[in-house]
Amino acid sequence: MANNGKNTSSPAPKPVHSFDLWGVVAHQHILGERKVKLYKALCRNAKVSEDIIGQVVKDYVDMLDGQPWATGARKSEIIDAIDAPTFAAGIYPDYSKGFISDALVVMRDILDAGQGVIIFTSKPAPGLDRQLVVALGEKIDEICFDDKHHPNAFKTVYDRQLKHGNHIVSHTADELPELIAAKKSGLFHPDGLIYINRNDSNSSEHVKSEGIIRYVDDLRTVNYTTLTNKTSPTGKYQDYSQDFS
């Protein structure tokens, strides 16, 4: 059947860049200190044992400091333990108090270039959408959460974005386990996985030994909007797992 000279091909998917929240977009120690102070006050008011309070706080601080035991499979329960009393009281973090400047700069650059941004975090982030609109001047594409230590979590987000005409081309994190999971998903070209060094918990040599070749101290050095040229031009699933050394 003739197409009358019209272009019937589908538009190329919009490149989208995924960012972890804590430690990447928001300063985890600034927000973490606020969270610990509030947790202690609420628990002491509820007569919770000082031993329990001390253990929960220690585990949480270890996680903030990037201790390997606390950034793997146990991360979720550590966060739940310290969040439980504050969430029960209807108190949520004000992320705007800890937004990191280089993250805001690169996200604005990405949006100005007509590309997309998502926040992919480990837990729900109530109020973050409104706070980011104020900081960036416009809405981002999605804020989502899942257990990022499993490759399927990345596949779920990737597939959901693809249904909206978007193609995730990068993920940035300050924790190695989730970047290893992203690598194992096969969705990302090696250039599209970025480790941002926020707390010196992992050396460049160690991160690169795990196959994560992008190690930076400032997100403004990444040049995100050029990464779209290093991935599948169609946005369809393309297994990059063999491209990692």
Q: How would you summarize what this structure contains?
A:
Helices cover 40% and strands 13% of the residues. It has helices at 28-45, 50-64, 75-88, 101-112, 128-136, 151-163, 176-185, 204-209, and strands spanning 14-19, 116-121, 142-145, 166-173, 193-196, 214-216. The longest helix is centred in the N-terminal third of the chain and has 18 residues, at 28-45.
Shape descriptor: globular
Helix content bin: 25-40%
- Reported by name, the CATH topology of the largest domain is Rossmann fold
Q: Walk across the major sheet and give the strand order.
A: 3-2-1-4-5-6
Oligomer class: single chain
Strand/helix succession: EHHHHEHEHEHEHE
Counting H and I runs of at least 4 residues, what is the number of helices?
A: 8
Strand tally, please?
Answer: 6
What's the rounded overall pLDDT mean? 89
Radius of gyration: 19 Å
In terms of DSSP E residues, the strand content is 5-15%
The CATH class label of the largest domain is Alpha Beta
CATH superfamily of the largest domain: HAD superfamily/HAD-like
Q: List the uncertain runs.
A: none
Gap between N and C termini? 47 Å
Number of domains: 2
Please identify the structural class as seen in this structure. alpha/beta
Main beta-sheet annotation: 6 strands, parallel
